[in-house]
Amino acid sequence: MRYRLLGRTGLRVSELFLGAMTYREVSPEARRIFDLYAESGGNVVDTASMYGESENVVGELLQGRRDRFVLATKYTGSRDRTDPNAAGNHRKNLVLSLEQSLRRLRTDYVDLFWVHVWDRHTPIEETMRALDDAVRAGKILYAGISDAPAWLASRANTLAEWRGWTPFAGLQVPYSLLRRDVERELLPMAQAYGMSVTAWGTLERGVLSGRYNEPGAPASRVSPDSLSERERTAARVVVKVAGELGVTASQVALAWVLGRGVHPIVGASTVDQLKDNLGASGMALPEEAVRRLESAVEFELGFPRDFVEEVDRSPAIYGDAVHLLDGR
């Protein structure tokens, strides 16, 4: 397992994050998964306050080795659906959600505390100041934002820079060969601010693992009959490339995300699944394979990205020496 720095911090985080969303009990299999992940060099466990029993399970599984892990959890989701103030990104819910998570996780601090989703009713200034207070209190070490528009994350980090608050070090988004829309605004924004990017849904509910390609494949997270032709086409190309490289389709799909500088969150439910996913670490896909994967299904950046890239080398706009500019 290789490591990268979290945003513009010195914190080392492993290439692959372990997602704990589906954990409901401290089973022997869950223990084996955590042990294998740790033995392989993985050090980031990602959960959330609204993932049912997940935080309790993670807290139990990390007993005796908590400080060796980068523990990440999220808040926004409702703690009590009958209470209108038990949800959202305002200060009250942040404070109470964090305290609840700390109790469940059996720890006195969280390494990476994510804003789970954009709350359009809470000013981002309130959220950023409350997060900074939690950092200063030692209850969280770093902050991140998940499932939010680029302009919001950009405004948040600009406010943090101007006011001396803790900025977002990470961005969490859905990203896969089938879902690349974050390339339009979110990934360039993250690069400009030096934010680490983590991705959920990289295997698209198992579609890109190739499990639904065979005739008569049983339904699992999705029904094979519900797949669109676009999904089937992408899966076929991933499986074909995997066969040529002598690896699995899941490893190819994850390696493509890793190659984009993004940390996949792997939500393995069995040790065998995790072993397979870990095989993507350090895998470099050939350029020709990447071209085939990316051209398998249609994707357009859209305006303004496609227009800006089209005119980026235009002498009419940037002068006759534009072709001599190397850029960043």
From TrEMBL:
<dbReference type="GO" id="GO:0016491">
    <property type="term" value="F:oxidoreductase activity"/>
</dbReference>
<dbReference type="InterPro" id="IPR020471">
    <property type="entry name" value="AKR"/>
</dbReference>
<dbReference type="InterPro" id="IPR050523">
    <property type="entry name" value="AKR_Detox_Biosynth"/>
</dbReference>
<dbReference type="InterPro" id="IPR023210">
    <property type="entry name" value="NADP_OxRdtase_dom"/>
</dbReference>
<dbReference type="GO" id="GO:0005829">
    <property type="term" value="C:cytosol"/>
</dbReference>
<protein>
    <submittedName>
        <fullName>Aryl-alcohol dehydrogenase-like predicted oxidoreductase</fullName>
    </submittedName>
</protein>
<feature type="domain" description="NADP-dependent oxidoreductase">
    <location>
        <begin position="16"/>
        <end position="297"/>
    </location>
</feature>
<dbReference type="Pfam" id="PF00248">
    <property type="entry name" value="Aldo_ket_red"/>
</dbReference>
<dbReference type="InterPro" id="IPR036812">
    <property type="entry name" value="NAD(P)_OxRdtase_dom_sf"/>
</dbReference>
<keyword id="KW-0560">Oxidoreductase</keyword>
